[in-house]
């Protein structure tokens, strides 16, 4: 297992990269916003991107890493409905895209466990 700081930095990089992508290329994210959310999908794309940026920054900084790890776990759980929608909506896409959408579903569990690992190993 890599050093806890390296593990946390990798998680922070994943979150910050994903958050930035929500602003640089928002269209794919707009398409997976659950229809039950009020308002335009772009608002939710930007809100989730901002949340990923903020949580990534919290994970990156040792003083806020514990809280950031817990926030990352909650964020990964919160975006699960969007992944479900993507898997459902992409049933008719070409096989590689369809399988990628399906793979996102079980991937949430290790992401949540990774975030909890970072939180538990953060210095107090």
Automatic annotation (TrEMBL):
Superkingdom of the organism of origin: Bacteria
Protein name as it appears in the record: DoxX family membrane protein
